[in-house]
Amino acid sequence: QVQLVETGGGLVQAGGSLRLSCTASRNIFSINAMGWYRQAPGKQRELIATITSRSTTNYADTVKGRFTISLDNARNTVYLQMNSLKPEDTAVYYCNGHISTGRRYDFYWGQGTQVTVSS
Questions:
Q1: HSE of 103, CA atoms in CB hemisphere, 13 A
Q2: Tell me, what's the pLDDT at 27?
Q3: N-term to C-term CA, the chain
Q4: What is the pLDDT of residues 49-80, one digit of tens each?
Q5: For 1-41, how does the pLDDT look when each residue is reduced to its tens digit (9 = 90+)?
Q6: What is residue 12's three-state secondary structure?
């Protein structure tokens, strides 16, 4: 079973930066794409950034120009560099991967990491 582990969350003041990491492990054959979602209290989970194995990226309008997603294929790790953070970025951030263990591609989720931005 593929495992995704996120690290890098925490508390930061508005205007600050954080970098999240998500490493995929166990029986990884190929990564097609990975992404970051977030869920604030009382709100639906929101897709904020995706990246393919060929490094094609997409961003939600709410984070475009402030967040950067990148993928290290050799380490099976996706990063989310978050700059100019705002209080409204406060949420639990989840990593998602479209990953093959050799037979087919499936979607996998990390456990989430809390990001809190104080005003």
A1: 4
A2: 82
A3: 40
A4: 999 999 999 999 999 999 999 999 999 999 99
A5: 899 999 999 999 999 999 999 999 888 889 999 999 999 99
A6: strand
Residues 6+ positions from 95 with CB-CB distance below 8 Å: 4, 6, 20, 22, 34, 35, 36, 78, 109, 110
Quickly list DSSP for 48-79: EEEEETT--EEE-TTTTTTEEEEEEGGGTEEE
Cα distances (Å, whole numbers) of residue 15 to 25, 36, 65, 84? 33, 20, 14, 4
User: Which tokens is 70 given?
Assistant: 């990148």
CA–CA distance, 96 with 39 (Å, rounded to integer): 13
